[in-house]
Structure to design on (258 residues):
């Protein structure tokens, strides 16, 4: 009775199995490759009567396991280095060098630093390694801008690289097209304005006694309303003067007129 109880264990289940205390490595892992490498090396060192074909197979398997161990070790060390030194800071440094604005002065992140405090030190001791000094060095202001721009995506980084001004206001620095309001008035409007001004000056220069003169006939009033009280010769003279003045204005300020 007691033997059956001991076989069943503490939970009373006879099918319960106790662990042997040995960890079995997973096939294909670095630990399994190391164990298999040690076992092959022991077999080759203890048994000198192994046939040549089996020895060749064991040597090829041993070389394959060593290559797997080296690759796994490198990947593990690479992951540790990325988590220790690189990560976000390294990627921001890379984006800083690639997407720094072309129109602004570039400040290097990995410049060589010289120490002049110790006069007896050699040249090699005065120069600090660039990578080591860059870890503790203060980043330029543009580095923070690039770090915040990375969250917006690659398009924002390209816009940062191609921006025109340091404030980021590209619309203010870009040449503005000439609006229609700033264009000079058409030639016909300028001619009409000149004729109207001349008529006003003539009316102002007339004596006051003319106001008592008899009104003109209906036909003269109608023709005077259209021509402004000028005959054909005067109108032609005014048109020639107006054409000359407009041509002069076009030569001076009409270069940008579309």
């Amino acid at each position: 009775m007691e033997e059956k109880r001991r076989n069943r264990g503490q939970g009373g289940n006879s099918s319960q199995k106790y662990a042997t205390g040995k960890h079995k490595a997973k096939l294909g892992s670095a630990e399994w490759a190391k164990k298999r490498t040690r076992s092959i090396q022991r077999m080759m060192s203890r048994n000198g009567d192994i046939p040549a074909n089996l020895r060749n197979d064991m040597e090829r398997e041993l070389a394959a396991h060593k290559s797997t161990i080296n690759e796994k070790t490198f990947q593990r060390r690479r992951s540790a280095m990325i988590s220790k030194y690189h990560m976000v800071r390294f990627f921001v440094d890379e984006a800083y060098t690639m997407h720094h604005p072309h129109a602004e002065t570039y400040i290097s992140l990995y410049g060589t630093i010289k120490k002049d405090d110790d006069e007896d030190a050699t040249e090699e001791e005065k120069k600090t390694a660039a990578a080591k000094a860059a870890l503790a060095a203060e980043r330029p202001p543009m580095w923070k801008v690039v770090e915040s721009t990375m969250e917006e995506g690659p398009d924002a980084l390209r816009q940062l690289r191609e921006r025109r001004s340091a404030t980021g206001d590209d619309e203010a620095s870009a040449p503005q097209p000439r609006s229609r309001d700033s264009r000079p008035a058409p030639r016909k409007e300028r001619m009409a304005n000149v004729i109207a001004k001349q008529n006003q000056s003539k009316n102002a220069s007339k004596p006051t006694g003319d106001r008592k003169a008899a009104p003109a006939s209906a036909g003269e009033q109608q023709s005077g309303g259209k021509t402004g009280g000028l005959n054909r010769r005067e109108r032609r003279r005014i048109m020639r003067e107006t054409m000359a003045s407009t041509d002069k204005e076009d030569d001076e300020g009409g270069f940008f007129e579309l």
Remarks:
- DSSP finds twelve helices and two strands in the chain.
